[in-house]
Amino acid sequence: MNVTWFFMAAAISLAAALFSPASSARPQANVTVMIDRAPPPPVYERMPPPRRGYVWSPGYWRWTGHRHIWVNGQWVRARRGYRYQPPHWVRDGREWRFSPGDWRR
User: Fold this and answer.
1) Burial class (CB in 10 A: 0-12, 13-18, 19+), 42
2) Domain ranges (residues) in the chain
3) What pLDDT shows up at residue 25?
4) Are 47 and 54 in contact (CB under 8 A)?
5) Are the beta carbons of 103 and 85 closer than 8 angstroms?
6) Which of 19, 60, 81, 85 has the most CB atoms around its CB within 10 Å?
């Protein structure tokens, strides 16, 4: 009798695991880039004509570990209820910290 209950409980647990909705959590990793060199001045870019449903993300200097390289601006799909904060460098004492683009409410 106990064996039957064990297998029934195992079958119910397996069914619950198989048919339960998947978790909506996403893994996130935060990497902070801090360097002791200021980025060069921004490069002038002519912004292309507006695109419906997109916001313009201006170009920025990316640190390769040895030097800065320019990354061209691009259109980023808009998110309703959010505002876009483009990638930029922030002075933090004697160092420079890179802040990647993100969406804020």
Assistant:
1) middle
2) 54-104
3) 58
4) no
5) yes
6) 60
Q: What is the pLDDT of residues 14-48, one digit of tens each?
A: 565 556 555 555 666 777 899 999 999 999 999 99
How far apart (Å, rounded) are the C-alpha atoms in residues 24 and 96?
Answer: 34
Q: For 60-74, write each residue's pLDDT tens digit.
A: 999 999 999 999 999
Distance CA 21, CA 19 (A): 6
> What is this structure's pTM?
0.68
Tell me if 95 sits within 8 A of 34, measured CB to CB.
yes
DSSP alpha helix (H) spans, the chain? 2-19
Burial track 51-88 (b if 16+ CB lie within 10 A, e otherwise): eeeebebbbbbebeeeebeeeebeeeeeeeeeebebbe
Which helix or strand (DSSP H or E) is residue 102 part of? strand 102-104
